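4.2 Preliminary Data

To establish feasibility before requesting continued support, the project team ran the inverse folding procedure on a target of 396 residues. The structure was first converted into the token representation described in Section 3, and no sequence information of any kind was made available to the design step. The complete token record follows.
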């Protein structure tokens, strides 16, 4: 029951390829990557396409972490709303971040095929105060030339419940397992290796000159001090039996993203959230569920559908939260990492499905010595100190 709906779905065959089970492929690769989620596989794909030997290790398997346990929302942007990002980063950097994420979303759509559904997404206001916050994001997006649509009530399928909404037309939904397997298949086809069931105990055990920590909220053990910088956050989810007709046309989220739900084409409702009702209890890597949050998820499902169908799946996953809610991407100082050549791409603060694809690619390009790979607000050096993207870089 605690297996995610996605991981329970073997309808999309995992494509075997050279290197998947080929742990003993001769020699030490140029780059070893810890984590076979969206970040690690994106990094491996870019490196392999550049002709650089990359080996991905995962203690479990492809999509075993948050990448196979999330709610399946593929959203542009970051954990901060666009207007908040403008204040925190300044308008040029906020614009750059949104453009980076929109490019990654388009790339995801191209790589995922029918594992991506281009439905848009709806950010809903549960009260007048949230309506004001969402209006502020809408106005900032439109002012800076990004596509956004305002929706007045009734909206969100629950009459009288929502006070307006912001529709992001280019967002969509993914079937997380299918998407990640396709990304893995692309990385394998480009020549990367993926070693499942390979738990990395220490970065010092890896022989490659460059290593990448792509573990989002799960990597505290690997980097001294990581637990002070990236805090694990658990998200709990339920999925129901199919309900027809399908009334929720795209990913919905409300209460500043604390609650989120989508209805799949087969009519199943997937609902996650309420982490804020037990912040201390949910600051954990434990992939369990709790009765209090599960009851709230059921109540939300009943409100959305008008009834509570049978709950078929209950699960949770862990993501990494950073103090400024932006990921850490780039080299990590040797004094912190305990060895040279360590890079990180992690800490998406619950918004990593698209950003993970972008940041895995960014860190790979940093390793390749591409000076244009640095996006300053993400620079891992802001927390860890780094030697600069070119240090120890592998030429393409
Ligand atoms: C319930 C939930 C809902 C979410 N909803 C959304 C959403 O709707 N939209 C969105 O954009 N984001 C969402 N997120 C966040 C998003 O899923 C993550 O940010 C993203 O998947 C992170 O990908 P990743 O590859 O960086 O990490 P992960 O997918 O977590 O992969 C890390 C991998 O590292 C492996 N690993 C860890 N330590 C080791 C080790 N020592 N040795 C070997 N392997 C190791 C793990 O097994 C794991 O497979 C959600 C997350 C959760 C949990």
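Position-by-position output of the design step:
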């Amino acid at each position: 029951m605690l297996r995610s709906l996605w991981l329970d779905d073997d309808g999309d065959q995992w494509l075997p390829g050279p290197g998947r089970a080929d742990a003993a492929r001769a020699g030490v690769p140029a780059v070893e990557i810890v984590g076979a989620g969206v970040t690690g596989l994106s990094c491996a794909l870019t490196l392999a396409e550049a002709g650089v030997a990359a080996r991905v290790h995962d203690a479990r398997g492809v999509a075993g972490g948050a990448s196979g346990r999330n709610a399946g929302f593929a959203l542009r942007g970051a954990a901060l709303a666009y207007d908040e990002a403008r204040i925190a980063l300044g308008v040029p950097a906020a614009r750059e971040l949104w453009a980076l994420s929109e490019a990654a979303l388009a790339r995801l759509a191209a790589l995922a095929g029918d594992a991506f559904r281009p439905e848009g997404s709806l950010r809903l206001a549960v009260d007048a105060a949230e309506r004001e916050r969402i209006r502020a994001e809408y106005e900032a997006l439109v002012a800076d030339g990004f596509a956004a649509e305002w929706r007045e009530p009734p909206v969100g399928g629950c009459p009288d419940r929502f006070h307006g909404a912001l529709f992001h037309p280019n967002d969509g939904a993914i079937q997380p397992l299918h998407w990640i397997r396709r990304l893995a298949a692309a990385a394998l086809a480009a020549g990367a290796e993926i070693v499942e069931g390979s738990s990395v105990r220490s970065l010092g055990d890896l022989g490659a000159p460059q290593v990448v920590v792509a573990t989002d909220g799960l990597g505290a053990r690997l980097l001294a001090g990581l637990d002070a910088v990236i805090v694990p956050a658990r998200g709990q989810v339920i999925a129901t039996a199919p309900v027809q007709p399908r009334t929720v046309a795209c990913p919905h989220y409300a209460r500043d993203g604390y609650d989120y739900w989508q209805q799949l084409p087969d009519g199943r409702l997937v609902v996650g959230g309420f982490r804020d009702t037990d912040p201390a209890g949910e600051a954990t890597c434990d992939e369990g569920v709790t009765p209090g949050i599960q009851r709230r998820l059921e109540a939300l499902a009943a409100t959305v559908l008008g009834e509570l169908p049978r709950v078929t799946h209950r699960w949770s996953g862990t993501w990494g939260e950073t103090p400024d809610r932006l990921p850490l991407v780039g080299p990590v100082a040797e004094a912190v990492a305990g060895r040279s050549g360590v890079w990180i791409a992690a800490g998406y603060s619950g918004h990593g499905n698209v950003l993970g694809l972008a940041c895995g690619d960014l860190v790979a390009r940093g390793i390749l010595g591409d000076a244009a790979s640095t996006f300053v607000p993400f620079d891992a050096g802001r927390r860890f100190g780094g030697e600069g993207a070119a240090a120890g870089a592998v030429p393409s």
